[in-house]
Amino acid sequence: MIGTTDLAKEFWEKGRSESCPIYDMHGHMGTWGAIYFPRGNAVQMIGTMDECGVKLLVFSHHHALMSPDIGNRPSIEAVHQYPDRLRAYCVINPNYPDLAAADLANFEQHKDVFVGFKFLPDYHKVAITDPRYRPALDYASQNRLLVLMHTWGGSPYDGAEQVRQLAERYPDVRFLLGHSCHGDWNAAVLLAHDFPNLYLELTAVFDDRGAIEKFAAEAGSERMLFGTDLPWFDPHHAVGVLLSAHLSDEDIHNICHRNAVKLLAPFLKAL
Amino acid sequence: MVYFDCNAFMGRPARREIYPPAPGAADILAEMDYCGVEKALVWHAAQLDASPKAGNDLLIEAIQLHPRLYGCLAALPNQAKEFPPFDDLLESMSRGRIVAIRAFPLDHHFFLNRVAMGWWIEPMVSHRIPLFLSVEHGCDWAIVYSLLEEFPDLVCVICDHGCWGEDRRFRPLIERYPHVYIDTSNYLLDGGIEAFVSDYGPDRMLYGSGFPRCHFGGMMLAIQHARISEIARTAIAGGNLERIIQEVRA
Predict the structure, then answer these.
(1) b/e for A40-68, b at 16 or more Cβ within 10 A?
(2) I need a labelling partner for B70 at 20 to 30 A (CA). Which of A102, A178, B109, B212 fits?
(3) CA angle (B211, B213, B219) in 5-degree steps
(4) Which residues in chain A are contacts of B211 at CB distance < 8 A?
(5) CA-to-CA distance for A33 and A16, rounded, in angstroms?
């Protein structure tokens, strides 16, 4: 068994916890050429979520991220298939402003699906400070939506400095820093200190021992969100890391569900 | 269920990253106790960062009094007579819980092939001494592929193969070479363990944490709740490593 508490015992023995459900705030779905996924479709992902006690996954389909010709349709279909288990981020690809404008126009029709937007600047090669994101950011600000951004330490597209500029400009947007400016851990903590509308999302942070502990100690677990890139990373691995990291049960509850429930409350009235 | 970690290291790396190092045996054992890891096969940061000889000496001394820790020595070419002969290694192995070898050919500027290292690898094959290669620390996939082409019967454990689900890189090796294994450190791929066991059985995968860079418990919980049989789980958790060690020929 990892750790010493009753919560740790429950996760170790059952692989999930009744008292500590998981809201995974950073997922994907479907195939992607760069990696083999044994469990990449919605049915398989729901199976994983059941085993790990993941109550809800908020995701963006790989095809929405990487094929503007396909767009957000697969995300919408998956949420309609599993409305009690899935919500989606509407992907904005700033390289195609006309398509982005259409996605924005359609957002209203899919309020049962989307909780906000997903930006992938390192891959789309457009900095988050670029004006082409503004229509989506303005819309997110007016509607107090979530914006999950891929962020990576040192990146000219979505590094800490770019995040800072955006957070200053849009105080009403809830920014989720996907990967928490990976590697630039001090800057991530500083951003969390300076901007109450900004959260540290933990996908790919779980495999760097010391980062979770640093965030909990210096930014506070109230600002941390569970995420796995599912179907990339096994949620059991992430939970095993939380149990290994000498966190309090209160911290683990905050990270796994409390913070997410607060953020998602406006969008999940039915749940 | 006994967890026997095949991939942990001790010592202070020359460069600091976010993770707290485990300077000595007591540090690594304390975390093993917290996470329920019974035993670990460890290497020493000085083997990579300083020199294999200096690191080997530190490692042997550090684990001497701790029967839960097993040692992995580092190797170098010997053409310049800068490294002890292979027979000295065998003597070290017979003296105390030294059960495997590592090599860091990229960092240590040598070719891991028959020309440079045949004098070492040939007896490793005949003695069935496992060679651990990390594609994160001092080695890469191209080296692993060419080495195994030259030494198809080498017992080789490929470690730290990254979080991008490297199945396309390691599965061809698993299929071609019967003594190739992979460890689990950073094999975070959802469903990866189950898919691997379904295709190749449970005997070719070893629990490895990557500690202290990674936590002991991440892949433990993944293994503990993987959709595989208890026999398979026991093998991956520690049984396979026990078997590999037992098969080393004196």
Answers:
(1) bebebbbebbebbbbbbbbbbbbbbbbeb
(2) B109
(3) 55
(4) 209
(5) 31
- A51, A214, A231: residue with CB nearest B225: A51
- Tell me whether residues B218 and A39 touch, CB distance under 8 A: no
Contacts of B169 in chain A (CB under 8 A): none
Neighbours of B109 (CB within 10 A): 9
Do B163 and A12 make contact, defined as CB atoms within 8 angstroms? Answer: no
Q: Do B164 and A35 touch (CB under 8 A)?
A: yes
CA distances from B215 to A36, A184, B13, B212, B221 (A): 24, 20, 17, 6, 11
Chain A residues touching residue B31 (CB < 8 angstroms) = 244
Q: What is the pLDDT along chain B (250 residues), one digit of tens a residue?
A: 999 999 999 999 999 999 999 999 999 999 999 999 999 999 999 999 999 999 999 999 999 999 999 999 999 998 998 888 888 888 878 777 999 999 999 999 999 999 999 999 999 999 999 999 999 999 999 999 999 999 999 999 999 988 888 999 999 999 999 999 999 999 999 999 999 999 999 999 999 999 999 999 999 999 999 999 999 999 999 999 999 999 998 6
Closest CA of chain A from B239, distance in Å? 18
SS3 A217: helix
Taking the model in full, what pTM does it have?
0.97
pLDDT tens string B40-97: 999 999 999 999 999 999 999 999 999 999 999 999 998 998 888 888 888 878 777 9
- CATH number of this structure's domain A21-267: 3.20.20.140
Residue A133 has phi, psi (to 5 degrees) of: -85, -15
Beta bridge partners of A146: A116, A174
Distances from the Cα of A130 to the Cα of A91, A127, A166, A180, B250, angstroms: 16, 5, 10, 20, 65
A109-112's contacts with Cβ under 8 Å and 24+ in sequence apart are A110/A76, A111/A267, A112/A79, A112/A83
- In this structure, the strands spanning B156-159 and A174-182 are unpaired
Q: How far apart are CA B154 and CA A25, in angstroms?
A: 44
Q: Is B52 on the interface with A (CB under 8 A)?
A: no
Closest CA to B181 of B144, B200, B156: B156
Residue A44: its chain B contacts at CB < 8 A? Answer: 191
Q: Does B225 touch chain A (CB under 8 A)?
A: yes
As a whole number of angstroms, the distance between CA A262 and CA A259 comes to: 5
Q: Is B1 on the interface with A (CB under 8 A)?
A: no
CATH of domain B4-246: 3.20.20.140
